[in-house]
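Technical appendix A lists one of the benchmark inputs used to test multi-chain prediction within the project. The record comprises two sequence entries:
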Amino acid sequence: MLAASQGVIFALCGASVRIQFALFRGFDFICAVAVLAAAESVVWGSRIAVGPQWVRAASAAALSLAVAVSVVAAWNFLLDRSFRLRSELGGALLIFSLGVSMAAAGLVTLTRGPGLRQATLASANGSGPAANPTLYALVAGTAAMLLTFTWTRARRGFALDLWSQDAAFAREIGIERRALAVGNGLAGGMCLGVVGSYFALAGGSTPEIGLPAFLYGAASALLLPGDTIGRSMLGGLVLGPVFVALQLVSAPAVANSILFVLTLILLLVRGTSRSAQHVR
Amino acid sequence: MSFYLGVLAVVALFAVSGMAAAVLDRNLRLTSLAHAAVMGTGAYLFAIASRYSVPFAGAAIIGLLGATLAGTVLVLLAHRVVGEDFALATFALQVAWFGLVVVPNPITGGALGLGGIPQLPLSRWLGVPLALMVGAGAVLVPMVWVVRRSERGPFHAASAVLARSDELAATLGIERGWVRLQLGGVYGLLLGTAGVLLASYLSFIDPALFATGVSVSILAVGAFAARGSILYVVAGSAVIAGVPQVLRLVGLSPARSGAVQLMLGGMAVAVAGAAWLRRGGR
């Protein structure tokens, strides 16, 4: 169960990182910001909501989804309107979004203090179905995954796929990023909302919670060859259980380190320098 | 008085480490997100050597050599990955390094860190903050001179070609590996110096001192000198590292002061990134 739930979470991270990559041709740390916003929303939502546990859990999860979707959709809208993004500007986007995500983490620390904040719904053994993070990941995560996959098979999803493969050709047949930015932001935001809620329910929220989620997503997106959202989700479904297995044989921090070293190796093997790709 | 000296010492430390980021950016246009890991490698090696009763100078040399090696290896990654993938690779390296250091173990001390690190020998006469400033100045002043001189010479021209195009550099007969090796060495040496100075200043280190946020702060300080004079790293360091410290005078707790530093660093990096996006290239 745990391995499956981690697989789903990794798949959602991978899908959202890939959606942003396809839109703006760069790794986008807004994924980290959205996860942080969603996790903090669950913590605060669980404290202000009233009623039985399942009502409070559902309210907190709904709030976190709404917040994450708003964050990503607004970001995509503003990014699309504000900058003339070209294909080679992935580095600039990464730096810009990293700065924004760090400023957001700093702001969260400044306003509510450093360290861990736990949702009042969370319990070590899962005191009810609504507060059980594994079950939440399996049910809400699988639903989000299926919705995202269905989205990629729909018109806008195909348009995004085409845009990511060849922007010039996509423009020629009338596909503009402007039309894709917000809609795909909604899909990515939904995935990140579920991830943030899961993290908050499983262990609580810290200001740095978004960074590992981003790296899980990057690793999932890079794992399998092919630049489609489906492949990224598949990569996550493979990587999640591997991560759980690593956690069984080593400390969680070591498992994280192994995973991130794997990300580094994947990047090195793929190689983006011209000499690595033998471009003459 | 000692508080202000302490603030100046922190500013000097960040200026040295920010210079490392600026050297990398100005010459090879590489954005590393593992500054803190390289700095931490130097600091930890220095601290570990000191625990094994290695004299101060020997321990410092071990720390500097370790950081130089780490910096060189990091820059050599650019042989395979460039641009955003280089940044992402170094970010993964930074997080992986942090995870390995923070795990409870007798060598690095885990999250509790290592204590009892010897202070700079000069601090007996000058006091700890002033000794650190002298140490940082002894590195910073000659490095500013070296960077300014090299930027008017053929080495900078060679690195500029390499930053632009690997195959053009090869066509012109530029030893790509050798240029990267030299710049990586300087980058690692500067960060190693900052790490050794930090460890000896605090007499204590723990992983939190070398977290991702610190890498971003160093990147932000370096961004101040991405264009214009290399001396802007001092101004950048005063803003990013100095202002949060001064805010402690109005009652800000150390944790919240750290949050302000992270915010300022993030905002500076975001502004640099936005300018890059607006320009349509570096």
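Chain A has eleven helices and no strands. Chain A touches chain B through 58 residues (CB under 8 Å). Comparable benchmark entries are summarised in Table A2.
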